[in-house]
């Protein structure tokens, strides 16, 4: 996949009078299907062990479904992982691009000269999500706290009804539309006329490439993690290349009975964590590190959460290229978040449509779909898994490692997120 | 308002329906004429599935006309005869409409009940054939599917008794009316509506194939009737004749109560169902077609069809597109009317400023808007998120900030000329040149309000009816100086707010209030003559008015009624006389202002359903008592004294040019004032029942009471030439 021989629109994306920001390294736990093995509290202890902890100026973590007890999970994890208690930490949340938000927040702190060294990452634990009492039950419990006399308490308790006990699960649906993401993906695939077969083929590709990358030892960002009371996990456990025949047997998961999105062509609920050490270039060099990549221009976009929920990459890609002064031809590796096969393929079709560009994006022409031979070559969220808050760092590290391995210069990372938002960033390989 | 309710659409979801198939029989292929171009219907074949597309030319909707019907039968016969075709999909090419029911013009053109019966029997045969189709047929429905359209799409729903309700697609699925729902798609590689129809067709074709291949079974857990109307036990009970008789009796009583015997159709429908159950379906179908024929010839049918056409007319902007679209609206006064106007504006996406003089007044108004939207959430017509998004279009404030961007200001402050002058001057100091100033008033002449304006061509009247979010009518009032573009702008805003619009000339009471005033004067006289308010209410509702006359005064507000009566009384003098205004004045002085103050003719209490008479009014009535005149005081006379004064004044408005057309007069009377819909409005009423009969009535009452009942010139003209009709 090397295209280093090609002439680029720009030799580098370095800008005069702006600090270069580098990724020194990034790591992640293996991504595990939810419920297969439970990380307990020490989850985010994944850390670049070689870094002297006291040089870290700031820690930022992304997460989506928050545990009430650890609403600032970044701080708790940092303390638990042995970082200095003098290092401040905060948590960010932006659905599936929470880790991306953590990274770019770090980039902002370094670029503005506030910090030199930032640890950014993300964590998600779908095996254990907070389940609340119903609103009625909560209200009664809170009122009981305030009730002073026994009489008051009894009269409150007399209002208790059995249905108060039915619990509230965290919403998996869009707040604004009450539509689940899978349902929206199915409608999106239908809107772009993406067939079931195309989706299954794409999912099979993702699993096959992930398996190959795993077998060839390319997923080098994984560090072993000992789950207390259980085995040490070292490998992503959701990679399962199947056959098109097997996949064709599955029933639609969301729009029944005629939809096209199935369990096999969707990303699955995943536990996992990732982290990255980012620094000002001069600081990294002064400390004797050999950085892996530069973090360059990035954009966030947002659009209609009902009908364009998952089209973030389509909107973000041309925007970030324009900002960086690059074209699709300059990009050597693409790392897109794969929420659903149908979503990726719909994005491809949207990016390849002049009609869509003109009518919905206010652009004169299409940006074009990424060439498949440069796209997610080491697997993607469909096969590796997708811990909501942690995927962003995995995408950037995959892009950086692929650039190093293949000798390319520019990587484009893009992702969609709940709420109809999206993100894209250019990663530039650090010269060897 | 029956006609208006029958028009509407299945929105949001598209749906499809599988017809029951009863085995598959091979027939000889008799040569295809599929390539023949037809006007309303075309079909193509996808594999072994025929896709029948309905698309009536030059119309926004498909209606069941004779042509469509015969083309449809042609196509179906070809499909049934074809060896290659194993199943069919029925779909409309028009986004938003499957079949909107029978063609009203076709029915209206029929001269005899036999003609209508014939049409009905042809349709029955078609539906029967569809039901017995040897090949599965899938109806893919997107948008409105009404009346006969529903029968085409859903024959298995057999003989539905339609009450004219709108059923949303998700509800239709729950009821078992449809088998599957397809949700509309967003943007893709072509416009969403186009792709959604395409997708609906694709899904329907898959289902049709599946049915023909027996991979999908069309069975439902429970039939429609079993699920919704009858449990097993009641199904058994229905086999006992005595129980059936009791049920018929109960249903008839209920319908009789709801329609007050004024609408013949519901009772006939029950008759037909009875015949069907007691004497078998053939007798039932025969009776259905005959009764349908009879009904189509009734005055009620003609009145309602007339209202339908009038309403279509009043949903158009005959003044053309305004030069500038109104995007920013400001409403002055957050009272009942102001907040109501704001509500129907924000939910159509208009950015609206609601300004009041006090924080309490403003808060009350904002709460009213919120409650109006929240009620829709409770009815599941809106999500709570959509409610919040809509509510964010509203800005409440106490000052004139942002008025420099307003395209239109609608004032709904208290009905007081000097106050209206004050706000007009204040507003004109802050609004841009193009901004329209509209006054919501029920009686103050617009030219008097405009007298202090620097730009009278931009001043217009917009008379809304309370409650604004429920009442469909908007009466727009133009003065001699109002420009055409200002009128176009006001009509455009009204249409956007979902209103049915009549445009009338300025004058005291315009059209609606002016018709109501003499009738109200008669109401007072009748009360003074000793008819108690409850009796009066029942007399008016049994004539077809949706609200009784005494209740109406309470609803409008006794003070408002008094105010208007005084104003118009001064202008029109003796013609508007009758009852003594003393009654209203004394009620106002005692604080009996109607529903808003909790007491009027009736006592209003939160949570109490049956309202009681306010006995304190008795003494006032006693002190103002007048002897009734026995020759004009029968129940029927009382009803006609009210209606003839109304009708006479309406014709006078046409005579004076306040009204441009009789159609607007009818729409205004029915949709704004509750004139009995079964009579079609004052002008339709005159056409159907004869102007002479009304003039005779007026003369009789004139003898008893004098000038108030003198028929106007135009009315006597029509009476003296029986061939002259308001509707030609």
UniProtKB/TrEMBL annotation, chain A:
Keywords carried by this UniProt record: Acetylation, Acyltransferase, Endoplasmic reticulum, Fatty acid metabolism, Lipid metabolism, Membrane, Mitochondrion, Mitochondrion inner membrane, Mitochondrion outer membrane, Transferase, Transit peptide
Annotated PROSITE patterns: THIOLASE_1, THIOLASE_2, THIOLASE_3
Family matches, as InterPro entries: Thiolase, Thiolase-like, Thiolase_acyl_enz_int_AS, Thiolase_AS, Thiolase_C, Thiolase_CS, Thiolase_N
Keyword Cell membrane: no
EC category: transferase
Domain Thiolase N-terminal: 22-282
Active site as annotated: 96 (acyl-thioester intermediate), 386 (proton acceptor), 416 (proton acceptor)
Coiled coil stretches, renumbered: none
Gene3D superfamilies for this protein: 3.40.47.10
Swiss-Prot/TrEMBL catalytic activity: an acyl-CoA + acetyl-CoA = a 3-oxoacyl-CoA + CoA; tetradecanoyl-CoA + acetyl-CoA = 3-oxohexadecanoyl-CoA + CoA; dodecanoyl-CoA + acetyl-CoA = 3-oxotetradecanoyl-CoA + CoA; hexanoyl-CoA + acetyl-CoA = 3-oxooctanoyl-CoA + CoA
Pathway: Lipid metabolism; fatty acid beta-oxidation
Gene Ontology MF term list: acetyl-CoA C-acyltransferase activity; acetyl-CoA C-myristoyltransferase activity
Domain Thiolase C-terminal: residue ranges: 289-428
Subcellular location: Endoplasmic reticulum; Mitochondrion inner membrane; Mitochondrion outer membrane
SUPFAM superfamilies linked to this entry: Thiolase-like
Any GO CC annotation of this UniProt entry: mitochondrial inner membrane
Record EC number: 2.3.1.155, 2.3.1.16
Keyword Transit peptide part of the UniProt annotation: yes
Principal location class: endoplasmic reticulum
Entry function: Mitochondrial trifunctional enzyme catalyzes the last three of the four reactions of the mitochondrial beta-oxidation pathway. The mitochondrial beta-oxidation pathway is the major energy-producing process in tissues and is performed through four consecutive reactions breaking down fatty acids into acetyl-CoA. Among the enzymes involved in this pathway, the trifunctional enzyme exhibits specificity for long-chain fatty acids.
Subunit structure: Heterotetramer of 2 alpha/HADHA and 2 beta/HADHB subunits; forms the mitochondrial trifunctional enzyme. Also purified as higher order heterooligomers including a 4 alpha/HADHA and 4 beta/HADHB heterooligomer which physiological significance remains unclear. The mitochondrial trifunctional enzyme interacts with MTLN. Interacts with RSAD2/viperin.
NCBIfam families: AcCoA-C-Actrans
Protein name per UniProt: Trifunctional enzyme subunit beta, mitochondrial
Organism ancestry: Eukaryota, Metazoa, Chordata, Craniata, Vertebrata
Designated gene of the protein: HADHB
Automatic annotation (TrEMBL), chain B:
Keyword Oxidoreductase on entry: yes
One GO-annotated biological process of the protein: fatty acid beta-oxidation
A GO molecular-function descriptor: enoyl-CoA hydratase activity
Pathway: Lipid metabolism; fatty acid beta-oxidation
CDD domains, A to Z: crotonase-like
Segments forming a coiled coil: none
Pfam families: 3HCDH (PF00725), 3HCDH_N (PF02737), ECH_1 (PF00378)
Domain 3-hydroxyacyl-CoA dehydrogenase C-terminal: 509-604, 641-720
Family the UniProt entry places it in: In the central section; belongs to the 3-hydroxyacyl-CoA dehydrogenase family. In the N-terminal section; belongs to the enoyl-CoA hydratase/isomerase family.
Name of this protein: enoyl-CoA hydratase
Source organism (scientific name): Prolemur simus (Greater bamboo lemur)
């Amino acid at each position: 996949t090397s295209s280093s021989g090609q002439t680029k629109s720009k030799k580098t994306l370095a800008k005069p009078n702006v600090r270069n920001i580098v990724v020194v390294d990034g790591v992640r736990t293996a991504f595990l299907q939810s419920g297969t093995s439970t990380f307990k509290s020490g989850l985010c202890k994944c850390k670049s062990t070689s870094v002297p902890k006291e040089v870290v100026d700031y820690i930022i973590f992304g997460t989506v479904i928050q545990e009430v007890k650890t609403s600032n999970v970044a701080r708790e994890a940092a303390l638990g992982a042995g970082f200095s208690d003098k290092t401040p930490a905060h948590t960010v949340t932006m659905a599936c691009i929470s880790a991306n938000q953590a990274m770019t927040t770090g980039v902002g702190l370094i670029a503005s000269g506030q910090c030199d060294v930032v640890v950014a990452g993300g964590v998600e634990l779908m095996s254990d999500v907070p389940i609340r009492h119903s609103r009625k039950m909560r209200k009664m419990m809170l009122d009981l706290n305030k009730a002073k006399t026994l009489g008051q308490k009894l009269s409150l308790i007399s209002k208790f009804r059995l249905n108060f006990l039915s619990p509230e699960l965290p919403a998996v649906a869009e707040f604004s539309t009450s539509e689940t993401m899978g349902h929206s993906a199915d409608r999106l695939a239908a809107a772009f006329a993406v067939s079931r077969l195309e989706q299954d083929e794409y999912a099979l590709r993702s699993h096959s490439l992930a398996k190959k990358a795993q077998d060839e030892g390319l997923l080098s960002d994984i560090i072993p993690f000992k789950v207390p009371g259980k085995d040490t996990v070292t490998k992503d456990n959701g990679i399962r290349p199947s056959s098109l025949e097997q996949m064709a047997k599955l029933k639609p998961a969301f729009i029944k009975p005629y939809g096209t999105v199935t369990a096999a062509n969707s990303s699955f609920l995943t536990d996992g964590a990732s982290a990255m050490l980012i620094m000002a270039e001069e600081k990294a060099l002064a400390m004797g590190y050999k950085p892996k990549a530069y973090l360059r221009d990035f954009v966030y976009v947002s659009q209609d959460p009902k009908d364009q929920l998952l089209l973030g990459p389509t909107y973000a890609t041309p925007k970030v290229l324009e900002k960086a002064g690059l074209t699709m031809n300059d990009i050597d590796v693409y790392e897109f978040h794969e929420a659903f096969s149908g979503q990726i393929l719909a994005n491809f079709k949207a990016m390849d449509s002049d009609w869509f560009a003109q009518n919905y994006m206010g652009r004169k022409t299409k940006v074009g779909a990424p060439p498949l031979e440069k796209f997610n070559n080491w697997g993607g969220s469909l096969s590796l898994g997708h811990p909501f808050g942690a995927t962003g760092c995995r995408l950037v590290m995959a892009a950086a490692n692929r650039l190093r391995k293949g000798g390319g210069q520019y990587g484009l990372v893009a992702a969609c997120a709940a709420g109809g938002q999206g993100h894209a960033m250019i990663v530039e390989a650090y010269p060897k | 308002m029956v006609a208006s309710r029958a028009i509407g659409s299945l929105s949001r979801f598209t749906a499809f329906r599988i017809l029951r198939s009863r085995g598959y029989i091979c027939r000889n292929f008799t040569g295809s004429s599929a390539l023949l171009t037809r006007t309303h219907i075309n079909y193509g074949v996808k594999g072994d599935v025929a896709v029948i597309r309905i698309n009536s030319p030059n119309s926004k909707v498909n209606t069941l006309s004779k042509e469509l019907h015969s083309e449809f039968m042609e196509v179906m016969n070809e499909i049934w005869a074809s060896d290659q075709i194993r199943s069919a999909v029925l779909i409309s090419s028009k986004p938003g409409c499957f079949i909107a029911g029978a063609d009203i013009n076709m029915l209206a053109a029929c001269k005899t009940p036999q003609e209508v019966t014939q049409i009905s029997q042809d349709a029955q045969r078609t539906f029967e054939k569809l039901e017995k189709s040897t090949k599965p047929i899938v109806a893919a429905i997107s948008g409105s599917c009404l009346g006969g359209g529903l029968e085409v799409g859903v024959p298995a729903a057999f003989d539905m008794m339609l009450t004219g309700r709108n059923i949303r697609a998700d509800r239709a699925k729950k009821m078992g009316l449809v088998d599957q729902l397809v949700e509309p798609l967003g943007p893709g590689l072509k416009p969403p509506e186009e792709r959604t129809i395409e997708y609906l067709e694709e899904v329907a074709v898959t289902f049709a194939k599946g049915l023909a291949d027996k991979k999908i079974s069309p069975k439902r857990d429970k039939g429609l009737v079993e699920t919704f109307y009858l449990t097993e036990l009641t199904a058994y009970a229905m086999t006992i004749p005595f129980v059936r008789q009791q049920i018929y009796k109960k249903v008839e009583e209920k319908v009789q109560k709801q329609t007050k015997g004024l609408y013949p159709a519901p009772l006939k429908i029950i008759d037909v169902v009875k015949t069907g159950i007691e004497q078998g379906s053939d007798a039932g179908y025969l009776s259905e077609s005959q009764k349908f024929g009879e009904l189509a010839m009734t005055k009620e049918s003609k009145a309602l069809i007339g209202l339908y056409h009038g309403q279509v007319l009043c949903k158009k902007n005959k003044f053309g597109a305004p030069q500038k679209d109104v995007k920013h609206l400001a409403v002055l006064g957050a009272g009942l009317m102001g907040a109501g106007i704001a509500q129907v504006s924000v939910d159509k996406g208009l950015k609206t400023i609601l300004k009041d003089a006090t924080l309490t007044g403003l808060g009350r108004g904002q709460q009213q808007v919120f409650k109006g939207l929240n009620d829709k959430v409770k009815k599941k017509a809106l999500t709570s998120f959509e409610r919040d998004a809509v509510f964010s279009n509203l800005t409440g404030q106490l000052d004139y900030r942002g008025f420099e961007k307003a395209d239109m200001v609608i004032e709904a402050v208290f009905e007081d000329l000097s106050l209206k002058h004050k706000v007009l001057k204040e507003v004109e100091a802050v609004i841009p040149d193009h901004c329209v100033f509209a006054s919501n008033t029920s009686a103050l002449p617009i030219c008097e309000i405009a007298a202090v304006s620097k730009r009278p061509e931009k001043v217009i009247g917009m008379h809304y009816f309370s409650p604004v979010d429920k009442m469909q009518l908007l009466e727009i009032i133009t003065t001699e100086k109002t420009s055409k573009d200002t009128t176009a702008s006001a009509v455009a805003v009204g249409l956007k707010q979902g209103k049915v619009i009549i445009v009338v000339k300025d004058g005291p009471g315009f059209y609606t209030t002016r018709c109501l005033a003499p009738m109200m004067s008669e109401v007072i006289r009748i009360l003074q003559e000793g008819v108690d308010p409850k009796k009066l209410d029942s007399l008016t509702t049994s004539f077809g008015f949706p609200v009784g006359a005494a209740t109406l005064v309470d609803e409008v507000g006794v003070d408002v009624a008094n105010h208007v009566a005084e104003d118009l009384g001064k202008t029109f003098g003796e013609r508007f006389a009758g009852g003594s205004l003393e009654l209203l004045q004394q009620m106002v002085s005692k604080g009996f202002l109607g529903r808003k103050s909790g007491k009027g003719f009736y006592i209003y209490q939160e949570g109490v359903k049956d309202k009681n008479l306010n006995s304190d009014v008795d003494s006032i009535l006693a002190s103002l008592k007048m002897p009734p005149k026995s020759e004009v005081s029968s129940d029927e006379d009382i009803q006609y004294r009210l209606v003839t004064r109304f009708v006479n004044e309406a014709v006078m408005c046409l005579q004076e040019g306040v009204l441009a057309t009789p159609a607007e007069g009818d729409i205004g009377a029915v949709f704004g004032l509750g004139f009995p819909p079964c009579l079609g409005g004052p002008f339709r009423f005159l056409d159907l029942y004869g102007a002479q009969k009304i003039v005779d009535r007026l003369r009789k009452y004139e003898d008893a009471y004098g000038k108030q009942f003198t028929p106007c010139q135009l009315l006597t003209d029509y009476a003296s030439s029986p061939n002259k009709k308001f509707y030609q």
